[in-house]
Amino acid sequence: MIPRPPKLNDYGVTYNRTLRFVASSAIAQNFTFQNLLDLVLLTTTATAPFDVFFAVKIRNIKAWATPALGSVEEIIVMFDGAAVGFVGDRKTHVGTSMGIEPAFVSCSPMKSTLASKFQVSSSAVAFNLQCSGGTVIDLSLAFRADTLGNPIPAQNVSVGANVGTIAYRGLDGLATATTKLPPPNGIYTI
After folding, report:
1. What is 14-168's CATH topology?
2. Cα(42)–Cα(36) distance, integer angstroms
3. Are the C-beta atoms of residues 77 and 127 closer than 8 Å to each other?
4. Is the Cβ–Cβ distance between 129 and 77 less than 8 Å?
5. According to the model, what pLDDT value does residue 86 have?
6. 56, 55, 46, 40: which is closest to 154 by C-alpha?
7. Residues 116/161, Cβ–Cβ less than 8 Å
8. Looking at residue 60, what is its pLDDT?
9. Pick from 58, 1, 62: nearest CA to 31
10. Which regions in the chain score pLDDT beneath 70?
């Protein structure tokens, strides 16, 4: 007897990755799930990039900030939840420098919140970040690909992108020339 083929529970691609950003100036802003999905793009034309992934989940955020001699630095991360569709737990995670030791924060959204689940591209706030220039941010994310083939355009157009390549954006979703949180040097950014 030939057994029937077993069922397939999932055909989508899941990709876990830690992405690094360095603040070029002071930051105090919200970051949306759309910003997170716009981090990894496919350039279909010189001006129209699309998200490679369909959904994203925050696994962990780590950040380091070194103070100037004789001063104090703080890093504040909050998984915000004041908007409709309550996403985060509104807990404030604060790291403060002491002497020459850098400020450090390592935090994850609570498991019972929507911020800890896979989210599609939307303007819902994923987290709020406040830090000084020079802060290093490591963002550990889990991405899911769309098995239905529905392309999602990036929120901002690109200029002169190499067609058919994977490209990266700053954490704020802005192009390389204007982002305050660029990815590391040496990778292709638009």
Report:
1. Jelly Rolls (2.60.120)
2. 14
3. yes
4. yes
5. 60
6. 40
7. no
8. 97
9. 58
10. 81-86
